[in-house]
Design goal:
3-stranded antiparallel β-sheet
Length: 162
């Protein structure tokens, strides 16, 4: 489920506007229910009133899956560049085996604490590793030669898994 379908399910006021619109001024706290059934985002609205939004786990997942796409769309609109993306700088990464699975778990972390884990099938790991090495080498060669555009193009690679 994505944000659009959540809005359709919960209903919009006439004219396509949300029934209730809250504009956040500051995120204050993020919480997880003691039983793990939901998450809560606490923030101050524009008037300084404390507001909490509680989401069941499946809706929290839908929100998290949608936010990077929304950030990329916002950057594209701000810059007018359809190739622009919101990019998270990588601070730390880890690989570990997954018990009873044919994959490795790759955990990527940013400097500000954002963390995401991917289950990467073994064959994709081989391809991913090779392409990372090749892309980094070609990008470095282009950068060393002062050919920034070549360096950027050389690092592009896209593979879609079944």
């Amino acid at each position: 489920m994505n944000i659009t379908s959540m809005a359709e399910i919960t209903g919009l006021a006439k004219g396509g506007e949300p029934a209730v619109k809250i504009r956040s001024r500051k995120l204050t706290t993020c919480r997880v229910a003691s039983d793990g059934s939901n998450v809560g985002l606490e923030f101050l609205d524009q008037s300084g009133t404390a507001v909490t939004v509680e989401l069941p786990l499946d809706q929290a997942e839908a929100l998290i899956m949608t936010l990077p796409h929304l950030l990329a769309r916002a950057v594209r609109r701000q810059t007018g560049n359809q190739d622009a993306r919101y990019v998270f700088g990588l601070h730390e990464w880890a690989l570990e085996g997954a018990k009873d699975e044919e994959c490795l778990i790759a955990t990527l972390k940013t400097t500000n604490g954002f963390e995401v884990c991917f289950g990467i099938p073994f064959e994709a790991c081989r391809s991913f590793g090779w392409n990372l090495q090749r892309g980094a080498d070609r990008a470095r060669e282009g950068a060393d030669a002062g050919e920034a555009e070549l360096a950027i193009e050389a690092a592009r690679c896209r593979v879609k898994l079944n």
